[in-house]
Amino acid sequence: MRLALAATCIGDAMFPQAPRAVVTLLERLGHEVVFPPAQACCGQMHVNTGYLAEAVPVVQNHVRTFAPVADGEWDAVVVPSGSCTGSIRHQQAMVLERAGLRAEARTATAVAERTYELSELLVDVLGVTDVGAWFPHRVTYHPTCHSLRMLGVGDKPERLLRAVEGLELAPLAEAEGCCGFGGTFSLKNSDTSTAMLADKVANVVDTGAEVVTAGDWSCLMHIGGGLSRGGTGVRPMHLAEILASTRESPVVPGAGQAVAR
Amino acid sequence: MTDARTEILSRIRTALGSDAPGPTAAGVVPREYRSAGEHAPGSDVVLALLVDRLEDYKAHVHQVPAADLPGLLADLLGRSAKSQVIGSSDYRSPDVLPTTRESATQESAGRGAVVVPAGLDPAWLSAADVDVHTDSRDAPMSAAELDQVDAVVTAARVAAAETGTIVLDGEPDQGRRAISLVPDVHVCMVRTDQVMQTVPEAVRLLGAEPARPLTWISGPSATSDIELERVEGVHGPRTLHVVLVS
Amino acid sequence: MSTFLGMPAAREGAGPSPQAAPGTLSGIGRPEDPLHWGASFPDAAKAALENGQLRRNLGKATSTIRTKRARVVGEVPDWEALRDAGSAVKTDVLARLPELLEELERNVTARGGVVHWARDAVEANRIVADLVRAKGADEVVKVKSMATQEIGLNEALAEEGIAAVETDLAELIVQLADDMPSHILVPAIHRNRTEIRDIFLERMADAPPDLTDVPRELAMAARSHLRRKFLSAKVAISGANFAVADTGTLAVVESEGNGRMCLTLPETLITVMGIEKLIPTFDDLEVFLQLLPRSSTGERMNPYTSMWTGVTPGDGPQEFHLVLLDNGRTKVLADEAGRSALHCIRCSACLNVCPVYERVGGHAYGSVYPGPIGAILTPQLTGEKSDLPYASTLCGACYEVCPVKIDIPSILVELRAREVSLSGASPETADRVWKAAMKAASFAMADGGRFRRAARVPRLLRAISRNGVIRRLPFPGSLWTRSRDLMEPPQQTFHDWWAEREERR
């Protein structure tokens, strides 16, 4: 298939190891990956903070950039993020609709219908759960709120992880509890956010895992920041990074970013 | 200055504005939920379900043929009338719900007192060794008088098995709402053919006479207000006996 | 001292209200405005987070009820279909609200009830006080009711010399402690058994001196305390869970039997009900009587539900008054996006699953409506600027459990947009900084080329990183780094990596 990658703004600027891993993984599975360079951001940050007017040009740029998928130029758009996919599916058309941009809202809907979060793409569209990965480490999985509840990815990420050779999946207590990131919530309500993070970090540490993984780098940035501040040594890694790892080219935990030691 | 009614209605119409529906645009409600159970009223499965739910609520359930009713009631009412009387601090037992007059302070020497609605079949209490008070809308007992009574016996209108619920509708065999509320023991007779599987079946039956005062009862009174730990028995009857009569 | 009855408590304005210190019995007092009191949400939350006892009480209680709810909802095969129906019924109610209210009024009146209309809290309180006075009563018994909490009825009655006795166990605890409810269903959820025992011993005149903190004993003490009041009360006041337009039937859903006592024994009953509590037909009860108990207390059915239609001669109250309350509801109705907040049946499931509520408790929200539903309903009812729409991570747990499918996260986003427009001309530095940052980000993120350049900026932070992380940033970055590290930004953005790769090909 020809797949267009939406790297996400945070992935692009802060955690490029995740979109790079998506490229590695999908090419290994025999697909062609395209990166439309006009892309920037899906607009979620602006929408969720209430800046709907400021979100409009951002959303317009995203829709314009990925509109070819609606014409069959690509088979699908893949996004290594549950929350960005959620925003694309549930917010973009609304933002354009409110701005009176009916035609663009229709295009946004058409693009959204062909846009998939990574685990959805692999399991539902490409029909694979065993992607031939090798990652000999103890890992725990945090289901991010938006992938879980906005998208309903269910157990797809865990199925992908269980199929990884050498990987030991450690169950996470209170897994479905929010880590407290919530975008600007982490700043506006820093104390409450921190209290939520402390519980998440404690639960992650209790698993004895070397690595905590998720489908969203934004939440991982938060959990990872807490794990690092606590000097726990547990590394955050995106699901894509683990799935990209093979015996031939193994990914080392934390290779993408250093963690305080 | 407009009156409140006019102003509120006008505020609502303004708020709805152009969204106000035309006469036919009232929302269509999808009713894909179960409007009836898969089991017939009074069937063994349904009865078993009701018993299970009621016992989960800590209600006592008895299943008897009609002929055995007087004996069972004599037994139940005798037991409640002779049980230990509680004083202000004698409520420590975690498992036993006290079942007698609150105002008394010593061992009940006399016979127990039971209130029944005027329309209850008198034969049912024929074997019980208790003082029977009859209550009706025309000759009601006061709240204070009801407070001196040990137990109440009523019939019921309908039951919903899935939720362990019994509904009284105030007809002559069920009586005024107060009589099944103030006494500490409620013995409720339910005919097996009155037991429906689901809530919708019960609601639709009650809907034939919706203006009757309805009391839905699912077990003895309870509270979860302290640390969300359920405690059975607060202001309403602390003991509920449900008698399923075939 | 005798119980706190009819003594107007010290009023707090909307300014900072005293936090109840941990380990003290006294609550936070009764605020002037039940929909807006105390410190800002972030500050009130911070204070609550520092109260370890409160966090333990809340954590234990919410996890208990979450488990119960999940179990009883899980056994209903048609749960989602019931939610769909419940939501659609409520949408229909709002669309036809004027006709349905008039229909309800006709039916209640035809059955001997009297219907009153109240535009706001002051008017509703006036109506109730006049009715009570006309009966010559100086004490009334009350069924737990959010509507009367919302309008501050007890305080208004106290000013008229009328003592309102809360008869729900948790409301009684809150009232005795001169406190505010912190939960829609379990108003004293912030208290544990020991605190409750101490409140009873200190403030309930007839509490047994050897009272222990066993919940059963505490409940029995409340039973004894209230029994005489029930048997002698002349007037009762209640709220309503449902009002059926096509029959005029009112319904109150409860557990303890205090509701039945109030709705049955007194001669006069006054019910205060928000205008949105309607359902069109009697049959619609079949939906809500399944949705509410399981969502609310996590029971298949609550112990008692009472339904009455006007006055039944010879049975129950012989005088019935229904007060229909607006108090901001028409403001909510006017907002197409936020309107569905009026679907709420006050089950409180959203509070019990909310990770924010679970940690900060109800008082942090500064309203009788706390938690996720409070975060949307309170600002909509008051129409004032509020920080409550930001008191959420938008995790979506509330929407998932809401029995009438209120999309709370989406409404929160809508309300944030409203806050942004309200703060458009705000001189406050914080507002201006946010606005400028969002404008700049919007410009950078609306174009691939501009974004590619902007995405390189974080690299500059590598200069201050140590061992791959940044531990301290100046404000506003300090809001992050005070409790979390920031991972060092990459040497190369994805955009640049891809471009290089393409060149190599």
- What ranges of chain B have pLDDT less than 50 throughout 5 or more consecutive residues? 82-109
The outline of chain B comes out as globular
| Major interchain interface with per-chain residue totals | B-C, 87 and 105 residues
Q: Average the pLDDT over all residues of chain B and give the rounded result.
A: 87
Q: What is the end-to-end distance of chain C?
A: 87 Å
- How are the strands of the largest sheet of chain B arranged? 1-12-7-4-2-3
The count of DSSP E runs of length 2 or more, i.e. the number of strands of chain B, is 12
Query: Can you give the helix content of chain B as a percent range?
Result: 10-25%
Please indicate the percent range of residues of chain C in DSSP E strands (runs of 2 or more). 5-15%
Number of extended strands of chain C: 14
- Share of helical residues of chain C: 40-55%
Rounded Rg of chain C: 26 Å
Describe this structure in words.
- The complex is a heterotrimer of chains A (261), B (246) and C (505).
- By secondary structure, chain A is an alpha/beta fold.
- Chain A contains 14 helices and eight strands.
- Chain A has a four-stranded parallel sheet, sandwiched between helices. A four-stranded parallel sheet of chain A has the order 6-5-7-8, sandwiched between helices.
- The model of chain A has no long low-confidence stretch (mean pLDDT 96).
- Chain B has 246 residues and is an alpha/beta fold.
- Chain B has helices at residues 4-16, 44-56, 69-82, 143-147, 199-206; strands spanning 60-64, 112-117, 130-135, 151-154, 158-160, 165-168, 185-191, 195-196, 214-217, 222-223, 231-232, 239-245.
- In chain B, the strands form three sheets. Chain B has a six-stranded parallel sheet with strand order 1-12-7-4-2-3.
- In chain B, strand 10 (222-223) and strand 11 form a beta hairpin.
- In chain C, helix 16 packs parallel to helix 18.
- In chain C, strands 3-12-9-6-4-5 form a six-stranded parallel sheet, sandwiched between helices.
- With 505 residues, chain C is an alpha/beta fold.
- Chains in contact: A-C, B-C.
- The interface between A and C is large, with 75 and 74 residues.
- Strand 9 (214-217) of chain B pairs antiparallel with strand 11 of chain C.
